Structure formats: structure tokens, C-alpha cells
User: Fold this.
Amino acid sequence: MKNRVIWLLIISLLLIFSLTCIQTHSQVERIQSNSINYNLNPTIDDIRLNYEYHSAIDIYNDVDLERASSMGFGTIDDPYIIEGYWIADDPFDGILIRDVTKHFVIRNCLIENCMNGIYIDNAATSIVNITNNIIINNDWGIWVIDSLNAIVSDNNCSFNYMGIYLDTTGYTIVKNNTCNYNVESGISIENTLGLEIINNSCNYNQNDHGIRISNDDDTILIQDNSFNYNPNGDGMYVWNFGHGTMSGNSFIGNQNGMYLESTNYIILEDNVFSDNSLEGASLYYSDDFTITENSFSNNQNYGLKMHESRRNGVHHNYFYDNNLGGTSQAYCDGTSVIWYDIVTSEGNYWKSWYNGSYPIDGSAGYYDIYPLDLDPPEIDAVPDIEYLFGETGNNIQWNITDLNPTTYTVYKNFVEILTDSWANGVPIIINIDGLDNGTNVYQIFALDAFGRSSLDTVIVTVTAVIREFNGETLVIFSGLMVALSVYLLRNKKKRNNY
Assistant:
């Protein structure tokens, strides 16, 4: 009877376990089945729900443009509107607009897997506004050609062959776009007349540059963009244009941060050039630049290189750890280049430079004769010192460097013992003989002309002399110890007898 109960219990447990496994396996299969398609790209799948699916849109004249628009009258104040569509998987263009004269806006569309996401050709008398679209996985994301007054803003043009391409355009604004992870450049612009490129992201593009610009004939503004981590190209490549300002941009982790050729009359200010595998900024045959308030740091070669470039002014820039192991952080072989501000007689900051004029590599033999001093005095640290009481010839020697030295103060045990002026590279020597046994704290406090300071502390320890025993002294000492021991033993016996 007892054995039957045991067997029944075992069989019941096995049945329950089997049913549980079958149910669990069925749940897993159902979960997997429901998620196979969704998990291919859940982010895009979710986004697509916000759009109305539409076949490719081809517009060849103003009549076609009016028919394709959901609202508007084609005027400046009330342009035609094309919006809200999801267009995908077309072997030609997602939206093509050609030979129109009316004003129009393309906005809030998702276009993927087409030849060109948006292609605009010959809208020369129109104001073209392409804004807030997602354009991914196409050959060209946005292509505008032979058109004036284009505004391309707030679009995501990533994962295409080319993000944004403008050719033969005028007075164009390219603003707040994301153009990352494209096969070639994030943005490419040719033959433009007037251009503003503001706050765009052109990062991680694979086989070309973050942005490529050529043949611009009028004022250009390139401001607050990131051109970073384009591994096989430059952050910015520019050829043959002039008159403009490039400010507030970052050029990090590219080959050259910036490469400019045959480019003139540019203000280059407040940009960051860092961690590029070649130069931070390279200027070839580029004249009449003002280069100021830029940061050049940790570039493999020169922070700034100028070849056959003339009449450029370079001042108030910051150079940190470029061309490590070389003799200079900058290179120049052009003519009439001035490495300081002629009004203030202030040059550039070169990290850890304390020796007068700063040499610039290159056959022209330039110097920054007014290098800026932004570092506090540099004190070579002195190790702690220990000597025996009565020894002589003990000193603390401090070596201090700075471009603009003024005064120093020495403290012993936190009490001032000396204040004097100091000269760059001339050692300060403090004698510490004659100290009593014990520990003393010596400190030096160095100032430069700009009020920057440095402090170094040295602990000086003096120890007592321990004399060595000679043979005669040892015999006497041993005899005294024996006599003392005999005396103590006799006294102990007497106390025990009592």
C-alpha cells in the first residue's frame, strides 16, 4: 500500500511537470511568432504608423504641383504643402519636383529605399522649403539642383549613400539637419551663391567627408555644426570659395579636422579641432584668413598647418599636445603670416611653453613672438629630504618656469622666512643646515605677473647621531653589565632568606 502511494505521487508530479513544460513552450512559440516581424525594426515600424502611405510623387510643372499639394496657393505667404506621406521602395525618386515657379513646402514625410528621397530640379523662382522629414536608406537623401532660395532644415538624412546634396543653388539655408552614417558625405555642396550651414550633425560618415563644399562665390556662414568621427575622410573639405565665417564648429576624430584649398577671406574662430589622425586644420593656397579663439588639441600631426598660404593672421588660439614628439605644434611655409594680434601684441597659447618666442615649423622660419601665458608657474617637485644631526651641505633647490615670473615666498613650518623675485629657469636654493632633531616643513609659493600661483612642499627630517661602540668601550660596558647582574642576584637571595 505504501509503495502504491509513492508511485502515484511520482506519476502525478511527472504529469504536472510535463503539462507545465508544454504550456511554457507554447507561450514561447506564441511570443516568438508575434514578435518576428515587429523586431526587424521596431523603431521604424512605430514611426511609419504616423504617416499615410503614398506612391512616389512626380511633379513636372506648376499644375502637377498644385494637384499633389494638400493645401496652399503657391504664394510666398501661402505656399503649396506636401506633407504626412510615407513613400518607400521606389526604384526612382520618392518625391520629384522639376520646372516649377510656385513656392512650396515638403514637410513631415518619411521616405526610404528610393533612388533619391527628394529631388528638386529647376525651381529657380520658387522658395523651396524641405523641413522635418525622415529620409533614410536611399541613394541620395535630398538633392536640390538649379534652384534658388532653398531652406533645408530639421531633416534626418542618415544611412543613405549621400545625405544632402546641393548643386548650383543660391541663398540656401541648411539648418538643424542630422546627416550621420551615410556611405559618402553627410552634406555635399557645389556651385553655390550664398550659403548658411548652421547646427547640422555630420558624423560617422564612412567613405568621404562630414561636409564637402566647392565653388562658392559669395558670403558663407558655417556655424555651430559637428563634423566628427568620419573615419575615412575629413570633417570638412572645402575647395575654391571665399568670403565667410566658420565659427563654433567641432572637428573631432577625423583624418583632417578641416582641409581648405584655394579658399580666401575667411574668419575662422571659436572652433574645436581635436583628436584627428592627421592635422587639426590644413590650409593649402588659402589667403587672407583671420584665425582666432580656436582650440587645437591632441591631433596626431600639427594642430594648424598652412602651405603656400599668405597674409593670414593667427592669434589667441589654444594649442594643446599636438604633434607630440615634434618641435612645434604648428607649421607654416607661406608668406606674410603674422602669429600675433598686431593691435594687442598678443599671440597664441602653447601649452607648457616657458622659453620666450615660440618656433613655428616650416621653411618660412616663423615665430610667435608674443606667446600667451595661461599656465601657472611650473615648479619641479623636490623629494623629501632626511639628514643626520650635525651634517652640513644640505639644500633645497627649486626650479621654476613661467613666461612672466614675479615673486616667490618660502615658508618654514608655515612661517614666512623669505620673499624675493625670481627669473625663469634660475634655481632658487635654500640652505637647511643646522636644524634640530625632528621634522620641518618647507614650502615655496611662486607667482607670475597674471596672479597665477603654484606651491611645492618639502618635508625635512633630522635624526640623532647613534655612535658606534669600539673594542675598549664594549669591554667596559660588558663588565658593568656583569657587575650589575651579580649585585641583583645577591639582593634577590637575601630577600628570599628572610
Observations:
- The chain has a mean pLDDT of 88.
